[in-house]
């Protein structure tokens, strides 16, 4: 695909890169030139066999970085499009915070040859906003299938539903302050995060030892996402 077709695509994307993408060579194409015929939607699927592109992706808990990779001359015009991307898209690398699961598109024009190519990659939303938790205060770890585990779940009290956090740490102590259980975890970028039931305790010392005695135990757990961190404290009555 050459400059004339690239013009239509960049205009459709609203990138404002028309002048820098085409330059003086734009005079070679007229509105009647068959190389510019058709609409932008038809041109998106076309690409040169010589020029190819891909997108390198690096994601952390709270940001995503995309880097364009191409095999041409090295003198390129870039046009990124998609939700939440920066305003300046004529750059080989963008860093942003997706607010939803989506796909990011990339067009690359090789200034030296006039060729254009296309790449696309999925990105996942990062976690922001209020947490959704319900914390029980009793457990009966007697293997009868009811309340055998103490579990933090979402406000609808459903296991497996995200609580809008990407990491947690948990400590449970006895009435003398001695630690009986600790755990922590961070969800991988691109996942729903911590789920209801991930923060839990089976009533055993260190999670694998003997069952604790009947009595009151005390928990502290902290959950975090990209714009906040909250700590919760309370007690758990263990009964048999």
UniProtKB/TrEMBL annotation:
Pfam families: CHU_C. It comes from the Bacteria. Residues 1-26 form the signal peptide. Keywords: Signal. This is FlgD Ig-like domain-containing protein. It comes from Sorangium cellulosum.
